[in-house]
Specification:
3-stranded antiparallel β-sheet; globular
């Protein structure tokens, strides 16, 4: 099936890993079929949105039958390149960076932090969970020997932009930004922002202003 990925809405693309994770659990439990209603209840996305998301990829299911779990899992595994290992750099080995290194996507066998970078001489040369910590100045050299297209950024906010520019110059194409700074990068580089303080503030706002029925 030939699919123009450029025509898939970004909101749909962001939901695909969520569907894939649930399908993995279904497959492991031995379930063979699943309806959009069952998917909806599990992933907390309304069934109409799920059907619309799936429609971008053609006929993935049959009306009155639902979806074949094994087929969906195989399809999304290929779509999300789950059979390929994606190498990732981590920039900034503070508390958050250290925690991410210790976790290192332990529930995923297709994403792996392969090198870490910092400017603190006290941590450079050390290893955390088998990942060596290099000086940030070594980034181009290490990037030249490792095909890592993406990096996780956990440096202090004031260093974020300058560090992002070094990542771009080293050939990094994607940045997962855990800092509160909003980065300016070339159009060919994709940045996803994860601001934990903003997410927490948003949660508190909704708790206060939109309380759920107890």
């Amino acid at each position: 099936m030939n699919i123009d990925q450029q025509k898939i809405p970004q909101a749909t693309a962001k939901r695909l890993p969520l569907y894939y994770r649930f399908l993995e659990n279904l497959h492991a439990s031995g379930k063979q079929r699943v309806s959009s209603t069952e998917l909806s209840e599990a992933v907390k996305v309304d069934s109409a949105t799920i059907r619309r998301d799936f429609s971008y990829f053609g006929a993935l299911g049959k009306k009155g039958y639902g979806y074949n779990v094994h087929y969906l899992l195989s399809f999304f595994r290929k779509t999300l390149a789950q059979d390929e290992v994606t190498k990732v750099f981590l920039i900034g080995v503070g508390n958050l960076g250290t925690a991410l290194l210790k976790y290192n996507f332990s529930k995923s066998d297709n994403t792996q932090i392969v090198s870490a970078f910092d400017v603190n001489e006290k941590v450079i040369g050390n290893e955390i969970s088998g990942v060596e910590i290099h000086h940030l100045d070594q980034l181009p050299e290490v990037r030249g020997s490792m095909d890592a297209p993406a990096a996780i950024l956990t440096v202090p906010a004031e260093a974020a932009q300058a560090t992002a520019e070094k990542l771009v110059n080293a050939g990094i194409k994607g940045i997962l930004n855990f800092t509160p700074a909003r980065l300016t990068v070339p159009d060919h580089v994709r940045v996803h922002h994860i601001d934990l303080s903003v997410e927490l503030q948003t949660l508190v706002y909704f708790l206060k202003n939109y309380p759920l029925d107890s």
